[in-house]
Write a structure and sequence with these properties.
By secondary structure, this protein is an alpha+beta fold. The relative contact order is 0.22. The chain is globular, with a radius of gyration of 18 Å. A hairpin with an 8-residue loop joins strand 3 and strand 4. It has one domain.
Length: about 250
């Protein structure tokens, strides 16, 4: 949502990388800024009118794990892995810099996206591949940082990344598409799906972020920073109420 001050900027912040444990860490040199707030960015299914207000919000089964979150170490589905590898090749070929799936590399992906926007204007048929590659790489950075599980079957618009340490899901490929078009893409589900009872809480955290220029609103680093803020807020609440050991799996999102 465009801010109401007429400055052509949107809410965001200079939030940096993340250590994957719910703790923000400092920006790397050249790191992107980020933060998104507004309708269509953070969303969730509406609660059932018959739902008992006193019932627990969610009922995930705690999973016994031997590491903090083994999903950060798993291989992605083949389709996602191939698309993310394509993004690595695009960046390496253009800038001679390898991508290693850390959040520090997203500033370079931002630069690639800025330049690719002009290419897509001249060659619209290139949008699908570039958007999918950028989105898959962003999704893998998120998954390897915070933990989660992909659903990657069928059309790219149906892909989802389900986080495991907080209740949050979205389509990173939709985020990649919006980074290039700089417009909301209907049907691509790039917004954050949250527990309805947590939506206002997360919205307030995101709304407190400073603004970013219009052309940075949809960049991968901006998206990552918003996810970081939402993750920290939700994870902090879980720890405070003694639910640090709870993990969400795909069926919890059905």
């Amino acid at each position: 949502m465009t801010s109401g001050n007429g400055s052509g900027s949107r809410n965001g912040n200079g939030h940096g990388g993340h250590d994957g444990q719910g703790n923000g860490v400092a920006d790397a040199p050249g790191g992107g800024v980020g933060g998104i707030v507004g309708s269509g960015i953070v969303d969730a299914p509406e609660p059932d009118d018959d739902e008992d207000d006193d019932a627990p919000t969610l009922h995930p089964e705690p999973i016994e794990i031997t590491e903090d979150d083994p999903t950060t170490q798993e291989l992605p589905p083949q389709a996602v892995g191939e698309l993310a590898a394509a993004c690595q090749r695009f960046i390496l070929g253009k800038y001679q810099v390898p991508l290693d799936f850390t959040s520090d590399t997203l500033s370079l992906v931002d630069q690639y996206v800025r330049e690719a926007r002009a290419e897509i204007t001249l060659l619209p048929s290139s949008l699908d591949l570039i958007a999918a590659a950028v989105g898959a790489y962003l999704g893998e950075v998120v998954r390897r940082t915070f933990g989660g599980e992909w659903e990657a079957v069928g059309d790219h618009s149906t892909y989802r990344l389900f986080l495991s340490k907080v209740y949050m899901a979205f389509n990173p490929l939709g985020m990649g598409r919006e980074a290039l078009t700089m417009d909301p893409e209907d049907g691509w589900h790039s917004h954050l799906v949250l527990d309805p009872k947590e939506r206002d809480f997360v919205d307030r955290r995101i709304a407190a972020l400073p603004e970013v220029p219009e052309d940075e609103y949809y960049l991968p680093s901006t998206r990552f920073d918003v996810i970081s803020v939402a993750f920290d807020a939700l994870r902090g609440k879980m720890i405070d109420r003694g639910d640090a050991g709870v993990r969400f799996i795909r069926r919890d999102y059905r």
